[in-house]
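Example 3.2
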Amino acid sequence: MVRITKYKRRRGTAAVEAALMMPLIMLMTFALIKYGWLYVKVQQINNAARHGARVAARADSNVGTIDTEIEGLMAKVWPEGAGAPPDNWYIVTFNPVPAADPDEGPWPTGTIVTVTITVPYRNTPLDIISMPLVPVPGSIAGTASMAREG
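Structure, written as tokens:
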């Protein structure tokens, strides 16, 4: 009989502990999901920048072909079911800036071409779970550099 009364006094303890810990566990679970999604998107943007740099390194490429290749990969970054992406939802920058004359080619042979793709993270479908307590970056950027071939 002593045992039964001992357990009766502690019956609600587990429920109270679960009620106190459940919000913290849920916050951590959703934060892990959000950061996992962010990591996937960062990798996709880095891959698009690396592919853009690889195309920029070819001797026969120009800014139009580079933009077309990057656009094809960035279409995979935009989540399915989020509708069509707006124009200019990402920014592509080249360093050094390509030449304006298409007959010269965008860069001379041997130039180190850096391609940077910047995507704003907030207020886009890239942010799958809006949680005010979880910090996120303002934008995601992927950068790659390669030497121009001759």
